[in-house]
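chain below, 61 aa
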Amino acid sequence: MSQPVFLVPAEGLKVRHPLGGHLKSEGDFVVLDSYWRRRMADASVKPGTPPKAAKPAASKE
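prediction:
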């Protein structure tokens, strides 16, 4: 099975997710199957860089 990849929709597009809804505008991890390969081929999505996880705020106690 393929590793998840981070994809981002092309500028100004809403790309349907086959499991329902749309791909998030900031991108999301998906399994690179034939559906997502077709979206890449028609330039609806492109590989992106996932956002870095926010650092937890240090408590001042």
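The beta strands are 4-9, 28-31, 45-47. Helices lie at 34-41.
thats it, cya
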